[in-house]
Amino acid sequence: MKAPFIGISRHRISIDGEGVTTLAAFHGCPLRCKYCLNAQCFDNEERFPSYSPEELYQKVGIDNLYFIATGGGVCFGGGEPLLRVDFIKAFRQLCGQDWKLTIETSLNVPAQHVEAIATIADDFIIDIKDTNPAIYHAYTGRNNALVMDNLSRLIQLKGTDHITIRIPLIPNYNTAADCDLSEQLIRQMGITHFDRFEYVIRETKPHLPECL
Ligand code: SF4
User: What is the pLDDT averaged over residues 161-179?
Assistant: First the structure.
C-alpha cells in the first residue's frame, strides 16, 4: 500500500497541537476551496513521491526523540487524510502508542472513514469552514451536510476533549458574525476547543479544476 504525499514538514511546534510534530500531507482532496493553499493536491499525483506506511515510518522516525520528549508525533493532513484511513491504520500499527497521531481534516468524507479512524488517532483538528450551508457551498463547491453528520458521529465515538474546530474568517465569503454563529452552533454540540483566524488573501489565486 503506497500513498502520494505533497509534502513532509518537520519540527513544527505548537501548530498541530502540543509537542513537536511532523506534518505528512497526502495528495488529493474532495473539496475545491477558492483560496486553497495546497493546490498541488490537484496536480498529477505522479509528480509526487509515494511512500508505504513502513517507508514513511522510517522517514519520520528521525525525529523520534523529539516526539517522545515533547508528547508530539505525526499530523496527517493534505489534501484530505481521511481518504487514506487504511494507510493511517497501518502506520499506527508501526508506531504504536508512543507517538501522538493528529488528523487535520474537513470531515467531508464517507461516514465509515470517520468510524474507522476515530479510535486510531489521538487528536482531530477539523477545518469546518462555515456551518452555513450556502457559505460552505459557495466557498468549497460542496455541501456540508456530511460534515455536520460526521462531526456528531466523531463526538459520539471520541468525546469532545480531543477535537479542535478551526473557524476561518474568509474574505468575500463570510463575516465575523457568521463565524460567531458557527462557533455557537458547534458549542451546542459540546465542543470547547476552537481556533479562529482570518485568511490572508494574496493577489494571485491558483486555478482549480472543477469539483469531481
Ligand atoms: S480542504 Fe480546501 S484548502 Fe484544504 S486542500 Fe482541500 S481544497 Fe485545498
Answer: 97
Indicate which residue's Cα is closest to atom 1 of ligand 1: 31
- At 204 the pLDDT is 54
* DSSP letter string, 15-80: SSSSSEEEEEEES--S---TT-S-GGGGS-GGGS-EE-HHHHHHHHGGGHHHHHHHT-EEEEESS-
**What's this model's pTM, rounded to 2 decimal places?**
0.93
Q: What is the pLDDT of residue 17?
A: 82
Residue 79 Cβ < 6 Å to ligand 1: yes
Task: Measure the CA–CA gap between 53 and 174, rounded to whole angstroms.
Answer: 39
Evaluate whether 101 touches 140 at the Cβ level (below 8 Å): no
Take atom 8 of ligand 1 and give the residue whose Cα is closest: 36
Query: CB of 33 closer than 6 A to ligand 1?
Result: yes
Distance (angstroms) between ligand 1 centre and the Cα of 32 equals: 6
pLDDT per residue over 71-101, tens digit each?
999 999 999 999 999 999 999 999 999 999 9
What does the domain layout of the chain look like in residue ranges?
Answer: 3-198
Q: Is 114 helix (H, G, I), strand (E, B) or coil?
A: helix
Q: Any idea which fold 3-198 has?
A: TIM Barrel (3.20.20)
How far is ligand 1, taken at its centre, from the CA of residue 8, in Å?
17
Q: List the residue whose alpha carbon is closest to atom 5 of ligand 1.
A: 79
Q: Is 31 in the pocket of ligand 1 (CB under 6 A)?
A: yes
